[in-house]
Amino acid sequence: MFWDNVLFVSRMGNELYQNGLLNWYIPDSFDPGHPPFIGFVNAIAWKIFGHHLWVSHLVMIPFSIGLFYQLYNFVSFYFEKAGYVFFGFLFLLVDPTLSAQMVLVNPEVPTLFFFFMAVNGLLRNNLVLKTVGLFFLSIITFRSMMLAAGLFIFDILNHLFIKKEKLSKLWDKGFILPYFIGSIPGVSYVTWRLLTKGWLQTHPDSPWAELWHFADLEFFLRNIIVLGHRYADFGRIFILSFLLISMIMLRKKMFSKNVKQLLLLAFSSVLIIAITSLLSTNTMGHRYFIVSYLILALVAFYVLIHFYKRKNMVYSILIITLLTGNLWIYPRNIAQGWDASLAHMPYFKLRNQALDYMQENNIPLSKTATYFPNATPPDNVDLNGNLENFEAYNATNEYFFYSNVYNLTDEMLQNLDENYQLIKTFKKKGVYINLYQIKSNDSH
After folding, report:
1. In this model, does residue 444 exceed pLDDT 90?
2. CA nearest 237: which of 313, 316, 312, 322?
3. Which of 228, 281, 283, 436 is the most buried (most CB within 10 A)?
4. Mean residue pLDDT across the chain
5. pTM for the model
6. CA 265 to mean position of chain CA atoms
7. What are the pLDDT digits (tens) for 408-437?
8. Quick one: DSSP state of residue 393?
9. 169 conformational bin, left if phi > 0, alpha if psi -120 to 50, beta if neither
């Protein structure tokens, strides 16, 4: 379990596992507002197979296989040759943010699976597939609900401007019915929350209350820059550069009907998520826009296949640069989306080594501060039964368990540098964990 998934899977899942699978009333102390869908699925699996981490990874396998299948079908809608379909599918799979989700237990993979199921149903006029995809999208998280709404926007614009159909066609039951049925879980959940709790995302005593405010103009402009960075990060800058160069070189020739449809899908599907993120002071994660990254990658592949002669060379360059995105590690003082690339992978083994070292040297967790996402009992990360908790950070803790994947504030880093001494370090492939002990008065 890593990053927000400690909350979405472990903490919410444990609540259902211990207090009833159908009791979706999460305690206010750690209730993020989102439906506990992935926690619910994990809790069921734990009841059957046992409360183990391997069980949670087992839960992800059907969603992962389903996602591969839906992505392959999505690519095949725009290409007839099997070779093009395969290499286009591969091009989407190597996106670092998608790759990171595939190795974690999280709600993103189910969201992507049902999103592309709904997209394939929409493109192929398969009402059953479309309805099922929308139905589950509306109950995984609030963001998945926004994706379902984004598909509704795309569907309307696609009919009007890509297919050139009349507005009256949108009122056919074949168009409206999938969205009506698909919205039932989401509308039911939101209604239930408002009736039982009176709030959706946060409340005055919420741990995240201070993070959620409307952005002022300065913060809004900052968010625009951050949003652009999310699209360009981890090697995707080369995809965007390729598309920009193609627009300059090919001009109108590039914008075939399929390219227009894909571009419309890439941006309209995440429109509500983007607007919400831009208007909020809460951090926007890379994973919020994975569907958009994948669709833009398919646009790049489509343009490459149809308008370039040196396809193999350009394809190789683009796919290699995407893969190298997993090696991007920023300096310590720059926050990084560690759950958005495979760069974080060495962390888990290093963390276990550090915890073993602490146990061998009698360094208690109760006297050790740490930071998100490690500031939780080890059981919430490893499902190992260890419920001992780290000490809350107070700037004078005896020990500090630090990793560069934690994105500490500048003030906390300065406190570590000035008031703590390093007692042990564990390092691999750019990821490291340092154990610190506060300096004695004699050393000041």
Report:
1. no
2. 322
3. 436
4. 95
5. 0.96
6. 19
7. 999 999 999 999 999 999 999 999 999 999
8. P
9. alpha
